[in-house]
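Anyone have tokens for Sodium/bile acid cotransporter 7? Sequence:
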Amino acid sequence: MTPMRFLPDKFILMLIAAIITASFLPVRGEFAEWFAIATKIAVGLLFFLHGARLSRAAVMAGLVHWRLHLVVLAATFVLFPILGLAAGWLVPGLRESAFYTGILFLCVLPSTVQSSIAFTAIAGGNVSAAVVSASASNLLGMFLTPLLVGLLFTVQGSHGISLHALEGILLQLLAPFLLGQLLQPLIGDFMRRHNKALGVVDRGSILMVVYLAFSEAVVAGLWHSVSWEDLAMMVGVDMALLALVLLITAFGSKWLGFKLEDRITIMFCGSKKSLASGAPMANAIFPSQVVGSVVLPLMLFHQIQLIACAMLARRYADRKLKRETASRASV
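Reply: yep, here.
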């Protein structure tokens, strides 16, 4: 394994650069208002493209694996929130941390699409089932994430999701997504052929959300209100959450009788959290002054999951190669 596998990818470096820029040169005043409008437009375009690119044929192809999909969804939207709440009670000082809201938020987000499928493919898992599970997670996340935000934040004593936030979800995220799905038969093939070029919109819109969020947070005094202890605690909780979910999905799926290919899919799809969905949702759900502290735990979790799952996928791939080599040698 080369050292490059452990380095942050280019997008993570761009996100870090956006945070640093916002820390020293936050957007303010009237320009901030115009930048916020541009960000909302970019996010709407992002979800329109997600809707237009999601192939209905791919969704139908994997629906037969309904038990697998139920386990993945349970890990994503049930196991994660339970662990997030438990962490608040078990980790001293976490509930008072400025980042606990962000940790709870990442626990209710849908799975990633691209990396879940990519790691499943590398490890030799059930790729078609991964496509369906990751896509279904993102579709259901449009509805479940706001509902779970309201539920979890009520449980921990905070206010649930507001009507204004629900309106933002419907108009800024769900409506463009549904419009993309309606137009998918007409433009879906074009979108998928130009997936790389359209990825600029994906990453560009997230960078805009992060820069705007941290600008608002810096103006509101974010870096004066958090400590190094808070940051260290957030990283530790992120790592513990990922490790626990990986272990539970790996051994739980084996106990449930799934074959190895399906267990790999459950583990990689059930342990991921989507920065692509999370950053725009945070921008729509939370007050602008706190979006920065909400998104930061998710950004770090995103990088941690990439490193850990890259190592696991490579290990599964090596094991598969050894089994195939041994099988050929015995013939």
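The chain has one domain: 19-319.
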